Amino acid sequence: MSQLPGGTVTFVFTDIEGSTLLLQELGDEGYGRVSGDHRRLVREAFRARDGTEIDTQGDAFFFSFPRARDAVAAAVDAQRALRDHEWPEGREVLVRMGLHTGEPHMGEEGYLGLDVVRAARISAAGHGGQILISETTRALLGNQLPDGVAVHDLGQQHLKDVQHEHIYELTIDGRAASQRQLKTESPKSRQEDLTARFTERINAYVERQLESAFDSALDEERDERE
Questions:
Q1: Are residues 111 and 201 in the same domain?
Q2: Same structural domain, 219 and 144
Q3: Of all helices (H) and strands (E), which one includes residue 156?
Q4: Is residue 2 part of a domain?
Q5: Is the dihedral of CA 128, 131, 136, 137 positive or negative?
Q6: Which terminus of the chain is less hemmed in, N or C, by CB atoms within 10 Å?
Q7: Has residue 183 been placed in a domain?
Q8: Helical H runs in the chain?
Q9: How far apart (Å, rounded) are the C-alpha atoms in residues 96 and 15?
């Protein structure tokens, strides 16, 4: 994996929203064309900005970029290409994108660490057509936005597995920020957190008692046999 960008890198995750519904409506052949065009448009836009394709599964991509600004520019280029493409039957193919910058560990199989998870969770929180970026990526972007791009502060969000992250949305060519709520988790209150911990402790205690009782019964059964 030595060919992958190291040090500080920006991760981009993308995914088609409503792909299962599109498949049902267009059928295998029609959706096959849509999926192929989608992959081509995203790859062309990302590779043109020095992006490295890490993985693809179904209609989801995972790319890395040496520079945050290039990653943002690539995401904007890809969204414009997807928006302007003539899709079958006049369909609209909406892709969500999430970006985060960090310094991940490099393992034998590629990137490892919380930064990868954070980027994936940011993407999963979005809706089709959105570009969401983390606070770190926003800081590195500074005031050098691609032409026609605006930044909208969506505030602190609670992401699965990584908890808090300040998220920003990038909009293109005068498009308004989405009014839809991000698909994030609601933070637990202190009381809910204490209740959850108490419940876990009770469950763990009950399991230990059951195991102990089971082991005792086996010991008694062995003694009787002897």
A1: no
A2: no
A3: strand 149-159
A4: no
A5: positive
A6: C
A7: no
A8: 19-47, 68-84, 114-125, 135-141, 190-225
A9: 6
Amino acid identity of residue 226, one-letter, is E
DSSP 3-state assignment of 166?
Answer: strand
Does residue 4 belong to any structural domain of this protein? no
Domain membership flag for residue 52: yes
Structural domain span for residue 85: 9-172
Tell me the two tokens of residue 140. Answer: 């590195």
- Based on the number of CB atoms within 10 Å of its own CB, is 9 exposed (0-12), middle (13-18) or buried (19 or more)? buried
The CA distance from 196 to 189, in Å, is 11
Report the candidate in 183, 22, 156 with the shortest Cα–Cα distance to residue 89.
Answer: 22
- Can you give the pLDDT of all 226 residues of the chain as single tens digits? 447 878 899 999 999 999 999 899 889 999 999 999 999 999 999 999 999 999 998 899 999 999 999 999 999 999 999 999 999 888 889 999 999 999 988 887 788 889 999 999 999 999 999 999 999 999 999 988 999 999 999 998 888 777 788 999 999 988 877 777 777 755 544 564 555 555 666 667 667 777 776 666 666 666 666 6
CB 41 within 8 A of CB 82: yes
168 lies in the same domain as 192: no
Q: Are residues 213 and 103 in the same domain?
A: no
Question: What's at 173, amino acid-wise?
Answer: D
